[in-house]
Amino acid sequence: MPEQTMAEKLLSRACGRLVKGGDIVICRPDFAMGTDGSIPMAIDYLHSIADPSRGPIDPKQLVFAFDHYGALSGPGALRLQEKAREFALAFGVPLFDVGEGIGHQLMIEEGFAAPGRLVVGADSHATAYGALNCFGAGIGSSDLAGIMLTGQLWLETPRSIRVELRGELQPFVSAKDIALYLARILRADGANYRAIEFAGDGVAHLDLDERIVLSNMAVELGAKAGIFPADETLARFLTAESRDRSQTVAPDPGCEYVQEVTVELGSLRPQIALPHRVDNVVDLDDAETTPVDVVYLGTCTGGRIRDYEEALEVIRAAGRVAQGVEVVVTPATRRINQELRERGMLDEFRRYGARLESPGCGACCGTCGTVLPGQVIMSSANRNFKGRMGDATARIFLGSSYSCAMAAVEGVVGRRTKGAS
Amino acid sequence: MTRILARGVIRAFGDDVNTDYIVPSRRKKETIDPERLRHFMFEDIEPDFFASLTDSTILCAGTNFGCGSAMEVAVTVPISAGVRAVVARSFARTYQRNAINNGLLTLKADTSALPANEEARIVEDAGEILVEAASGVTVRCDPMPEFVIDMIRHGGLLEYLKAHGRFPEQRA
Questions:
Q1: Which residue of chain B has the CA closest to A219?
Q2: Calpha distance A85→A82 (Å, rounded)
Q3: Alpha-carbon gap, residue A126 to A116, rounded angstroms
Q4: Ordered structural domains, chain A, with CATH
Q5: Phi and psi of B59, rounded to 5°?
Q6: pLDDT class for A415, splitting at 50, 70, 90?
Q7: N-terminal to C-terminal alpha carbon distance within chain B
Q8: Alpha helices in chain B (DSSP H)
Q9: Which of A49, A343, B73, B122 minimizes the number of CB atoms within 10 Å of its CB?
Q10: How far A55 CA sits from the closest chain B CA (Å)?
Q11: pLDDT tens-digit map of A212-268
Q12: Which residues are within 8 A (CB) of A42 and not within 5 positions of it... i.e. 6 or more apart?
C-alpha cells in the first residue's frame, strides 16, 4: 500500500476505497453546510430537475446557517433567506437562524466538524474545519444541490503541500501573521488545487483558535483544504466537548508532497495585506502610514475569543482608541458573544466606544452592513478585494487582531505602529 | 473531425480575477437572477463591460481566475451574458467546479498570445482542444478528465444527475 497524505487518507475514508492525489472520487460528505448566501440557489438547482415537493435525501446530512444576511441586508436578501428557511422547516434540515453566528464557526462549535470526517460548506472558508483534523472544503450551490439529491459529491483528490511550522511566535505576533506570510510567499494561487498539511513542532504552540485561522485562510492561497494533525491540543478540546476522537489521521512517513515550505515562527514579524490583494503583503513595519477610519474585528477569520483578548490587550494598554476611528466588533457566533459578555469584554469594548454588532458575517463581504465611500479599513478578516466590503472606493488592509487594535490606538496603519510590540 | 465547442469575441483579463470582481457580493443579496445581475459584471474593475458585450464572448485570463468566494453567480451570470467559455492559465478550484457543474467550458491554456477583442473559436480536433483566433493564433488547451467532459456535455451536474440518476460507479 502506498504511503498516504492526510488528504488522501481522509478522502479514501469518505469514498470507501484507497485513493491517491489526482484521483476523482465520488464520496459521501459527513456533513454539508449551506448559508443564506448559497442555499437559495441550491434549492433552485434541485428543483430545476426535481419536483418542488422533493426534499433532501438526508436532511440530517445538511446544516443551514443564516450568516450572510440580516436586518441591514434589504428586502431581496430577506426574501432569499425566507426561501431557505421555509425549505429547512419543510424538510427538517437543522437550521441556525440569523444571529446564531457564522456557519463555519458553528460547524466547529456544534461538533459537525470532527477528526476523520469530510465536511463541506457551500462557502469558500469551509477550509476552516481542517483545524480539527478533518477534510473541510468549499463547494458551490450546485454541489450542495447534488448532495441534497444524492447525498454524494465528486472531488478530485488533491496533492498536498507540507507547511512545517518551527518554533514559537514572538509576543504580539499571531496565527494571522503566519497566514498572511504564507500568502506572501506562496501567493494567492500558490496552493491552487492542493491541500495544505501543517506539520512541525510549531503546531504544538498554536491553540485551536489559531489553527482555525490558518485552515480558514488556506483558501486564500487557493487550497482545497488546510489540515492540521491531531495532537494533545485537539484531544483536550474534543474531550472537553465530549466529542469523538477515534477517527484521527496522520500522514504516513514517506508520503509524497508536491512542495514543502518551512516557516520559522520565532523570526516572523507582524504582517499586513495592503489593498486590494490578500497576497499584497509586507511587514507591518514597512507599510506606508495611512490614517484609518474603521477597525473591523470579526468574521470567520478574526472573530473568536482569542482575537478579542488580543485586541483588548492592546487597547487596554493604551487606555483609549484614537479619535475618529470607529471600532466595529462582530463576534463570529452567539456563543463567543456570550462569553465576551460574561467576561466583561463587551462592556470594555463599549467603554472604548466600539460599535457592537450581532454575530454573523457582518460587513465582511458587504452583505450585512457596508463601509462608506473612500474609507480606510483595517480588518481582521480574510479578503480585501476592491469593493469587498460594499464600496469599491474603500481601501481594506488585513492584519492580526493585535495589529488591528494597534491601528485603532494609533489612528493609522503602518509605520507609526512600529515598536508598539 | 473538427467539432466547434464555442465561438465568441475574446475579452482579456489579467491574473487573480476574483469572483467579487466578476459579480460583487453586495449585488447578489438583492437577487440571484442572472439576467438582472449581469448588468453588474466586472462593474468594480471595468464599469462598461456588460454594455460593451456582443452576443458571444470567450473570456480569457491569466492565472487563478475566479479566486475568492465560491459564489456560483460568478458562473451563472457570465453564462447569462453570453460567455461561452473561459480560457485561463489556471482557475481557482471552486470556480472551475462551479463552471463544470453549470456546463460552462473552462479550459486551461497559455493565454498570453491570444489577441483581445478578436473573434475566436474553440474546437475539438483529434482529441485535442484548441483556441483559434481569427488572425490565426492557435493555442492548445490542457486535456480534461473524461468524467468532467461528460458532465459539461450534459450541461452540468444537475442535468448529469437527472440523466443518470446518480454519480458514476467507482473503480475499485
A1: B68
A2: 5
A3: 15
A4: 7-16+23-263 (3.30.499.10), 272-417 (3.30.499.10)
A5: -80, 135
A6: low
A7: 34
A8: 19-22, 25-28, 34-37, 73-80, 93-101, 146-154, 157-164
A9: A343
A10: 15
A11: 999 999 999 999 999 999 999 999 999 999 998 889 999 999 999 999 999 999 999
A12: A34, A122, A141, A142, A144, A145, A148
Q: How far is B115 from chain A (nearest CA, A)?
A: 24
Q: How far is CA B10 from CA B59, B86, B89, B105, B109, in A?
A: 6, 9, 15, 14, 14
Task: List C-alpha distances in Å: A106 to A99, A110, A153.
Answer: 12, 6, 22
pLDDT at residue number B146: 87
Give residue A137's identity as a one-letter amino acid code. Answer: A
**A contacts of B36 (beta carbons < 8 Å):** none
Asked if B102 contacts B75 with a C-beta cutoff of 8 angstroms, the reply is yes
Beta bridge partners of A195: A160, A225
Burial B96-124 (b: 16+ CB within 10 A, else e): bbbbbbbbbbbbbbebeebeeeebbbbbe
DSSP result, A144-186? HHHHHHHS-EEEEPPPEEEEEEES-PPTT--HHHHHHHHHHHH
CB A27 within 8 A of CB A155: yes
A123 vs B70, B92, B166: nearest CB? B70
CA dihedral A381, A383, A384, A389 (to 10 degrees): -70
Calpha distance A69→A363 (Å, rounded): 10
Cα torsion for B103, B27, A32, A61, to the nearest 10°?
-100
Judged by CB atoms closer than 8 Å, whether chains meet at B70 and A77 is answered as no
Residue with cell 473561459: B86
Q: Which of B19, B26, B90 to mutate to test the interface with A (most CBs of A within 10 A)?
A: B26
Chain A window 251-290: which residues touch B at a Cβ cutoff of 8 Å?
277
The residues in B 67-96 lying below 8 A from A, measured between CB atoms, are 67-73, 75-76, 90-94
Residue A420: what pLDDT? 45
What's the pLDDT at A416? 57
- Give Dmax (Cα) for chain A: 63
Chain-centroid distance, C-alpha A222: 13
Contact B26 A143 (CB under 8 A): no
Residues of A in contact with B158 (CB under 8 A): 45-46, 48-49, 142, 145-146, 149
Pick the CATH number of B2-164 from 3.40.50.720, 1.10.150.20, 3.20.190.10, 3.20.19.10: 3.20.19.10
Q: What is the mean pLDDT of residues A300-328?
A: 98
DSSP state string for B38-80: GGGTTTTT-TTTGGG--S-EEEEE-SSBTBS---THHHHHHHH
pLDDT digits (tens, 9 = 90+) for A16-70: 999 999 999 999 999 999 999 999 999 999 999 999 998 999 999 999 999 999 9
What single string gives the DSSP state of each residue in A191-260?
TTT-EEEEESGGGGGS-HHHHHHHHHHGGGGT-SEEEPPP-HHHHHHHHHTT---TT---PPTT---SEE
Helices (H), A368-415: 401-410
Tell me, yes or no, if B10 comes closer than 8 A to chain A by beta carbon: no
Q: What is the mean pLDDT of chain A?
A: 96
